[in-house]
Design brief:
The protein is of the alpha/beta class and 402 residues long. Helix content is 34%, strand content 20%. The chain contains 10 helices and 17 strands. Helix 6 links the parallel strand 10 and strand 11. The radius of gyration is 21 Å and the shape is globular.
Amino acid sequence: MKKFSKVLALVLALSLALALGACSGNGGGQGASPTPAGGNDTPTSQAPAESQPPAESQAPSGGDGSILAADGTFEIAMITDKGDINDKSFNQGTWEGIKSYCSTNGKTCKYYKPASADTNAYVTSIEQAINDGAKVVVTPGFLFEEPIYIVQDAHPDVKFVLIDGNPHDASYADYKTASNTVGILFAEEQVGYLAGYAAVKDGYTKLGFLGGQAVPAVVRYGYGFVQGADAAAQELGVDVEMKYFYTGGFEATPEAQAMAAGWYSSGTEVIFACGGSVGNSAMAAAEANNGKVIGVDVDQSSESATVISSAMKGLASSVEQMLDSYYNDSFSVGGQNLTLGAAENAVSLPMDTSKWTSFSQADYDALFGKLADGSITLKKDTDADDPTGLGAAKVTVDYVVE
């Protein structure tokens, strides 16, 4: 492994290249037919939404959390992205929002895990869910942008909720969000900023960013983290060192754990673990090396005593809002690409469970308010090709390349 100590401008430029590489890697061979996570007894058709049985006639299927009607049918399907339904992060946060909505409103749902993480396998899973009766399909993850572009016009009676993306063709030449689709992005750079600022304000000056695959959402988290750390460092007049790396996936691996352990051994105090189950690798390393972790997507404080806070986005609440629009508002969100951030209360740090010692609730409220009203504006993934003016005067980033 070799390392390069670079200024933030180089970090952003290199990271953009990785993100673009990830963007171009959505295609692939035809995946094998996926297995529906709720079992194989789902019929190929079902009654319209208004004829669904009430909540008391529903029964969980299998133990995977699916909520089916008494006759085994369902209306809402989720297709998992790379990673697992129990990743304590992106997939799980989205699925829990679906389950919460169904439990509260007497609706039914099931999730599907594709055979592989490529466009054809995703389309296969979506088509199977529709054939099994899905009226609404929720897809969490940037890698679903092309699959949703492919299926949305072919199934005009089905509603599609795309989290972390906007539909486009394989060449990125044509972006189209049909009237039966809504695309939702989050301002991850804002909550990354909150996490970086809080960490430095709390006295940590040796930080790490351990990202998963360099998709835009992960890149935005990282860029915000660097900018937040720099803002606090300038206020306090301290210098900050940061190690920065993308693992290329969202799985917990021995390699990711070994890298995190090496960082802790060399002096890193806190790692922002931003990549699904990659966080589990960072937490295991932190537990063995007296390190600290900042979680991602959902409140991960229950996962490890090493988690001092989490950079959260409103996955569950946003999905519930989209489902409510379908059932009660004629899907008025259809055809829109939404970006949700501090102004919509869609990103946050869980201050009730955070373990900050110096960064106070008053500090958080003041900083959050500036993000919400636009007083603080940040660079993100789309600005990486023009890194000038990012102002990382007090953060030296060590971009690690294998």
